[in-house]
Amino acid sequence: MIEGALVFLEVEALPSRRSPQPLWLWTSAVGLGPGEVDRLWQAYLRRFDIEHTFRFLKQQLGWNAPRLRDPAAADRWGWIVIAAYTRLRLARCVVGDVRLPWQRPAEPGRLSPSRVRRGFRRIRALLPVPAGVPRGSRPGPGRPRGSRNKRPAPRHGVPKKNKTGTMSCAGDKQAS
């Protein structure tokens, strides 16, 4: 048996002009006062924001898309994605609202990162280019055209728990 409290929240109006729906929250704390209930629903809203931010980073910015060879490269990729997200947040006031047909107009300072991403290409064309792309005079060193790679790069799998509770990597094969 787990002790807890079920909290029923009802608001008068929402900023999006939709009709508010009642919200039920569960907490393991018992005997909550009004200040604690207020903190509880604020924590729920904050968690909702954080989860959707991670969803955007993974789906739209490709945080977990590349198959990187080295854990240090995965760390660098994470910082690149965070820098891209920060750039989108800073461009909110500059970019115009490019919305899908079913979306309502939004104020320039209140655009979501997805809407900023859609309108980012329009402001990128207006920015000055400090220098042209450097052009090489001859091809660089590398494998001759048409030859195959003889040494495949090592891959590092993501650690996962087995049914027994021990850690292993997805790409590892156990000797039998």
TrEMBL record:
SUPFAM superfamilies noted in UniProt: Ribonuclease H-like
Compositional bias ranges of the Low complexity kind: 130-140
Residue stretches in coiled coil: none
UniProt region (Disordered), positions on chain: 130-176
Pfam family, one: DDE_Tnp_1
Residue ranges of domain Transposase IS4-like in the record: 39-86
Comp. bias (Basic residues): 145-163
The protein's name: Transposase
Lineage, top ranks: Bacteria, Bacillati, Actinomycetota, Actinomycetes, Streptosporangiales
